[in-house]
């Protein structure tokens, strides 16, 4: 059920920067309207909105300020898409975080720099990386069904959905969760008539040169002096478009992009392919030492568990 994106409409969360911004730009260049849903816009995202105004000809972009942990704000994205464009055809719940210091397994709630509130009984990273894409996918399916039209949901997983990584266990868990969700929903593309066919699939990038890395020194420390192996966000965006427009990427497909591009098998997969896909600089124990120090602080009563 390949979909031609021309004259269609997409909702993309996290499109204020990084991969999702590149994806929004590529969709617009292919004459697809885009609802950019994010908390804020980087200057390059503001320039994109100015280039594709609602009052212009051709493809149009609109910004909807969105906290993806608030379900009412997620619902508002679909209302905006309907108000301006008659509804959405493509949905990308792309917003995500990479085990930030403010919601980190090794900095438990109530222990600075964590901002997770013990009284809320929630982890922000789980709300952003797991709950948000699950809820947006539910909303998208309902949106397509009530309009009786086919649709596509494109997720952003990671090579971390295949391999463990000690310093970022919740992030790794979140991407394993996305892989399981996408594969489980693959049968939607085989829906019997009169149910419209819905494609749900995912891209699984290796290290991507985006602000998620470059704006965070603690993340860059995981790379060490290894400057090779970066995946450019524009390349990921092109693959995300392929997941919509190409027949071979049927529902439930997860495609890795690193030093090579390949479909990730559900069973007996050999793991990420090629050099340069690893996160950590293997001979440098500094990152792991931060984790051990966090555990020692708990033992000394200087940090809550």
From TrEMBL:
Pfam family of the protein (one)? adh_short
A single GO CC term, please?
Answer: cytoplasm
**Which keywords are on file for this protein?**
NADP, Oxidoreductase
Superkingdom of the organism of origin: Eukaryota
PROSITE patterns per UniProt: ADH_SHORT
InterPro entries documented for this protein: NAD(P)-bd_dom_sf (IPR036291), Sc_DH/Rdtase_CS (IPR020904), SDR_fam (IPR002347)
Q: Which SUPFAM superfamilies does the record associate with it?
A: NAD(P)-binding Rossmann-fold domains
Q: Where do the TM regions start and end? A: none
What's the family? Belongs to the short-chain dehydrogenases/reductases (SDR) family.
The protein's name in its UniProt record: NAD(P)-binding protein
